[in-house]
Amino acid sequence: MALDQKIADRLRRNPDGLVPAIVQQHDTGEVLMLAWMDDEALHRTLTTGRATYWSRSRGEYWVKGDTSGHVQWVRHVALDCDGDTVLLKVDQVGAACHTGDRTCFDADVLDAHVAGADGA
Amino acid sequence: MALDQKIADRLRRNPDGLVPAIVQQHDTGEVLMLAWMDDEALHRTLTTGRATYWSRSRGEYWVKGDTSGHVQWVRHVALDCDGDTVLLKVDQVGAACHTGDRTCFDADVLDAHVAGADGA
Questions:
Q1: CB B25 within 8 A of CB B32
Q2: Tell me: the pLDDT tens digits for A49-93?
Q3: Is B65 left (phi over 0), alpha (psi -120 to 50) or beta?
Q4: C-alpha span between A55 and A57 (Å, rounded)
Q5: B120, burial (CB in 10 Å: exposed 0-12, middle 13-18, buried 19+)
Q6: B79 chain-A contacts, CB cut-off 8 A
Q7: What is the predicted ipTM?
Q8: A34, A74, A103, best to mutate vs chain B, most B CBs in 10 Å
Q9: Which of A22, A109, B14, B27 has its CA 20 to 30 A from that of B81?
């Protein structure tokens, strides 16, 4: 079995055949990480209930949690308006980040000028 | 002025010199869209209070809301653990998506098999 043809027809992949997947904790809304999927990784994610990516560094499919135990149970999957990004809502077991942090965005907050519509 | 050198040193860009930016509504946690930044777009985002991207289709900087009025006021900016993704929390005015939807992920929800740790 392969990815449903109607979904495959809507996907817009980068030159490596991949789309970015934004991974979000389904109930708290935390953005956990960004990973990459090809058609097969998306197919497995949709059909197995386990978030599955293409590891660019290792060059292989990566079922999140198979090594670490930090499984991502799939709750909701959507494509964006032009089919070039996946939003994946999951139930994350333990830490999403390989550093042990809950999310990959916890450790490196940048100083930003914060302005508002009131000009503050 | 250019992007702070210590930040630039941590960025890991794709072959086009870009990193993906996940854009999230700061209070509700909604993931609004994904866009792309080069060093200059990140610098402008950090220093002006307005979310600023590199438009790959138009080949120019894109200050979100300049045309549509759907401004994104910057609230929080972070890099991920390996410096190849930005998480941008904003206060979104109106619709984030050019289709008029609140987010770019509202219209194309995929059927997914949902399983849980209990095997359900």
A1: yes
A2: 999 999 999 999 999 999 999 999 999 999 999 999 999 999 999
A3: left
A4: 5
A5: exposed
A6: 105, 108, 110
A7: 0.95
A8: A34
A9: B27
